[in-house]
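so im writing up the methods section and need the Integron integrase record in one place, dumping it here so i stop losing it
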Amino acid sequence: MNVTLFSIEENRIAVSFDYNSTVLNAVRKIPERQWSATRKFWSVPNTQKTIDLLLETLAETHLFDYSAQNPVSNPDSVRCGIPDITKYVTLLEAKHYSRRTVQAYAKWLIAFGKRFASIPSALLSQTEINLFLTELVTEKNVSASTQNQALAALLFYFRYIKGTEPCNLASVIRAKKTVHIPVVFSKDEVRAIFDQLSDEKLLIAQLLYGTGMRLSECLCLRIQDIDFAHNMIIIRNGKGAKDRRTMLPHILEKKIRAHIVSVKQLHQADIADGWGVVTLPFALRKKYSGASADFAWQWVFPQKNRWKNTDTGMQGRYHIDASIMERAVQKAVRDAGIYKRGNCHTFRHSFATHLLENGYDIRTVQELLGHSDVKTTMIYTHVLNKGPSGVSSPLDRL
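--- predicted struct ---
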């Protein structure tokens, strides 16, 4: 897959590539991008910041061989100084790191390599790691968790690709993670948000609140994961590569059944066109190659448009992109007149808090959320109504 950048105006750069839905979605994430219908290419602002963002976004698609000296041509010959990125990504995937973790780690390694492109990779040490992590905070104002994620990505590279431990690991900067009380919607606020949503987006939001699933877990559901007989939803390969079960809200059963009927009609239309395939997890794609067209393996929430492999001509469907749902919920929160920093994940916080308010024990909530440590679940006890809001202020008794 090749992407070519070339100057078209003093302040803009053309982005040219053969059609690929993944690359197209990556380019669409760039601010101020423009499509030229007559010249058949995209263009973006000719700034170093935009070029860096474009390269990082393209890197996250995993469609490019970054072991090459210059994977993407651009006016400033911007390139990563790390020669082992393809090997790095392959090893992460072999260790069954999630797709999002692989993308995040690759992004940090590319940024690290670009920052120290003038230094041979064999000479990189904890000195460069510390400088990189410090600049993330002082120049880019990243959070402690983001800084620690970058550190984890770099340590993985040093340990498993270079085969060496940074000389003095004790001197490597580790950010102290701050503890935040989660934002929680009240029940009235949940209803108000639902009133602003409709159709598929409403159903997804109701599932997020009604089951406590993460957005990625909900969007990755397959038809076979909905167990109507036992009123249960099976969440496979959740965070930490763990499977778990959660309840299927009775109030949603009829709506989900109707939705699955519409998904089946869409799948049958795809099969009639000669396609109707989805990606299968891990080794199943080789072990059960024909299963990719089985209805049981289809996404519960498929995209409206099929993807197309420009090299093979194969077409299929992926699940709805998470960004679509995030934007819809954030807009619904604003339209409902709610002035909290709420998003899709806030439904998960609300699910846990409301269960605890209703008297369910912390261990049950822990199991439903899929937390390995009950300490993670304990954070929700800080936002219960019997907390500060349930205590009378001495000022009220003066």
